[in-house]
Amino acid sequence: MAFNSIIYGIFLVLIFIVYWFLLKKSIKRQNLLILGASCLFYGWWDWRFLLLIFFSIVLDFLLGREISKTDNQKRKKYFLAVSVWANLLLLGFFKYSNFFIESFIDASNMLGFTPNVSSLNIILPVGISFYTFQTLSYTIDVYRGKMKACNDFIVFAAYVSFFPQLVAGPIERARKLIPQFENVRVFSRVYVEDGLRQILWGLIKKVVIADNCATIVNQVFSGSGGLDGPSHWIGMIFFAFQIYGDFSGYSDIAIGSARLFGFNLSQNFAYPFFSRNYAEFWRRWHISLSTWFRDYFYIAVGGGKQKIRNFMLLFIISGMWHGASWNFIIWGALNGLLFLPSIAWKIGGKYSGVASQGRLFPTLIDSWRISKTFLSLCITYIFFRAKDLDGVLAYYRGLAVGNGSGSILNPESLLTLILILAFLVIEWNGRENQYAIEKMVEKQTTTVRWICYILLVVTLGAFAGESQQFVYFQF
User: Fold this and answer.
1) 20 to 30 A Cα–Cα from 369, which one of 27, 109, 148, 418?
2) Measuring CA to CA, how many Å separate 113 from each of 100, 101, 118, 128?
3) Are 100 and 197 in a shared domain?
């Protein structure tokens, strides 16, 4: 059940009505409704996925209680180890089995013999990387004493499977989200209006920006058109906006959907394309994953004691989290290398505020820094988008000299460019807020405010691109 589908809109309205108008006096029934709705939402793809997520839910619910009950440190470590290894083995089996088998076959072929091994026909459960990290953070936090174990199974199951952020985040910490399930939620018109506004902006990002970019990106990266060098540069830049519009659009819809039911989810993107160096970018891009790796991996392996080694490990692991292929591993390593100057020159925390704060236009120096950071990101994104390493090399060759005389400079790509420029103007003007249109219309009269909303909805319908699956569903 994709966020950009009509069925999700119907689903959301029906759950909203039952939640607030029929069950508002019972928090237990509201939680049970959310759990049931989440099961329906997730099982919409494949009911078998429910078996896997409920295994993780039951396992970590029981282990969390055992960790919390005992004062014996060895028993605590044992129960934590069971949680960590069980979750990682499940994730590894479903996500990385074929990668390791195929790598073994390739290495064997290079050494001159062919093993009698074939890839497994394994279906990757949607969102497994996200909810696995979410349950892991729970047992680790209980072990560290940062929170008490949850004793209400319905609350814990609803926390892990909460449908707005189940498939692609934000990856929420248990100590933030579980209390929201335990405490009474009160209907707020302000919350509902804000949630709907953020959902609308998320749909603009996904349907108008990402999906229009995807049509052109697919054409360029297919490698079948014999395109010139400028077309490859356009395709590379458009992919950056595709993945940003796609993923941050999902996050906006998730956060807005949760707000309709009285929940606050974490901001997952903070205008990353206006970053002035690589360290700032990674503080602003997929924030919930970056902070998860910082708190549960980087610190665990020693943190700043061997900072360069640990940061490189972090980025390589992050690359592997994104996908089971050498492309993603190299992509992670490249990002690590681009991050190293921020460590070596101790400028990782240099840019903590928004670029050119309070100014209508960016300063010249900020424009240079933003452009330089964005271009380096685009270069690395080729590893993210190309199917394999041969495709990466072919695309870099296309950037340099082209692969033919064809061009994607046509009315469709020019319209997409205009949409991107208009999108950037709105994002820049709203960059000091949680999302771009959060405050844009608040100071306007009711009439002007509704005109703005109608224009956004008309834009959504008029410039909707060919429907595309969310990119991060594959992770």
Assistant:
1) 418
2) 17, 15, 14, 35
3) no
Residues in the chain: 475
244 and 367 in a single domain? The answer is: yes
Cα angle 434, 437, 442 (rounded to 5 degrees) comes to: 105
Do 230 and 150 lie in one domain? The reply is: no
Task: Tell the residue number behind the tokens 């458009």, with chain if given.
Answer: 238
Angstrom distance (rounded) from CA 47 to CA 27: 27
Residue with tokens 């979410």: 134
Q: What angle do CA 459, 464, 469 make, to 5 degrees?
A: 140
Residue 344 and residue 346: Cα distance in Å, rounded? 6
Q: Are residues 163 and 147 in the same domain?
A: yes
Domain identity same for 195 and 177: no
- For 302, residues 6+ apart whose C-beta sits below 8 A from its C-beta are 310
- Co-location of 251 and 378 in the same domain: yes
Q: Name the residues annotated as catalytic.
A: 322
What's the sign of the alpha-carbon dihedral 163, 164, 168, 170? negative
pLDDT of residue 121: 66
Expressed as residue numbers, the domain containing 399 is 190-276+351-474
**pLDDT tens-digit profile of 403-452?**
888 888 889 999 999 999 999 999 999 999 999 998 877 777 788 888 88
**pTM of the predicted structure, to 2 decimals:** 0.92
Contacts of 339 (CB under 8 A, 6+ apart): 278, 279, 282, 311, 315
Cα distance between residue 91 and residue 95, in whole Å: 6
CA distances for 1 relative to 126, 166, 177, 192, 259, angstroms: 11, 12, 23, 22, 19
What does each C-alpha distance from 141 to 277, 281, 284 come to in angstroms? Answer: 32, 27, 24
**d(Cα 26, Cα 15) in Å, to the nearest integer?**
15
- How many whole angstroms separate alpha carbon 358 and alpha carbon 270? 16
Cα separation of 131 and 53, whole Å? 8
Residue 474 binned pLDDT confidence (cut-offs 50, 70, 90): low
